[in-house]
Amino acid sequence: MPVSYNPVGFDIATGAVAAVAAALENRFHFPAANAKMGSQLSLLRLSSHLPRSWGAGLAVWATENRPHNRSLSFSLTTADLAQWNVGLYDNLDSDRRFDTIVIGVPSGATAHLCACLGAPLLADAFPIAFSSRGKPDDIAGYQQRSVDLLTPILNHNPDLLAVSVFDPIHARQQIKRSVSIYLKLTSLPDQYKRFIRERLMPGGSLLLLNCSSKWSQYEIGARHRLQIGGYGGFTDQEFIRGTPWLDDWLHEEGGLQRSGWRLSRHWTYQPEAQWGSISGFATSVRDHAGDEGLPVHTLSFSSVDDISRMGFYAWQWLYYLLQVQPGAILIESGPQMNPVIGLRSPVIPLWMPSTCTRSHQLLQGILPDFPPRIPVLFQAWPTGNLTPDVIPAKIWNTTLAGRHGRWLGGDPLRFPSDFSTIAQMTPAIEEWSRRHGHRLHRFLQSTELIELQSLLASSHDQSEELLSEEFEQLEY
After folding, report:
1. Whether the model pTM is above 0.70
2. Which residues are registered as beta bridge partners of 214?
């Protein structure tokens, strides 16, 4: 059934669903496949040699899908969103059933979890971009454009909650040409219920991924919020109140805004736009499972970084159970994700949401758990934006020093502005996999994943106890 919803070019959430569908078909995911000109190396290479502001603008134009026309806001429905998701699995054998179906937060780490479980993903949030021109620091204008676009959508979709995202640091180019919105499900759609009924094997279970990540948001309407900024090296308060070093960067960018971006409205901490879970949706999933007599397991996370850690440990755990020696660690970032890799090669994946300071801290924290003496393959997504929180190549190299690390499909000397990397990363990991192939004998069971979660929680508690004892012995 054709639907009117078409995801933005390189969004992580919809990319995760597409990547899971590709993995279930045993094929690699190419993020540029649905972009306007994302696979044209010549254009992307040209953008890398232009002045930075021009090159970034050209790259954004070349690699994004065309934003939706405003007229879609009068016809888009929750059914369109859900049908787009389940429709990605239409190429699978109609008789294929799954022991586990994953429901909840879509991310690159979620995609790797799904591949480890051999499970499809039913997402709880969907991004959408509407064509609408504006200025990168005009938050009041952005709010009004959001209201105009979302009012008809929310009026005829009472089961949706909307969060407009205004990120004048990481998405300055996009703000000039579009309004970015996350549509979040508040209840389980009928299309998902039908998919579960048709695709879950007898005795199978649902796995609900819950993320309690919160971010300060302005209340625009009963089911409409506006979020300033998002995942990166800045806190929500730094976006709102500003910092001197951020003001210096804005001055260099030619922006006139200083001391943050604010609205004369009430704000509260709410589920973060991209990865924060809506409690009503989780309740709806559990209610449906109860009505159908289905087992449902819940994995709860405090941030998307925790999901990344779980994706890493899940594959490590599966290889341990299968007595498989890992051959490499693959570090991916942003829209670059290939969850099929574990099915094709003995690779432990670690997905980072971005290449900013926060993701760098994620890598530093998990680095001690990397198996020794195996190569680390590093795929850093190019943004073209030299924002203050971007970690330069030399620091990534220093962090991975002594780990046999190497960049795969990208040139570190031109990071983060080598946009041709977008078209090179998937072919590079595909070629590596051809030379280091293996066959996965079985998937991880959901009960084994829950057991792993308990082991990790127990280990964390013991670490905190040891840490507390150490602090008690210190004298200040």
Report:
1. yes
2. 271
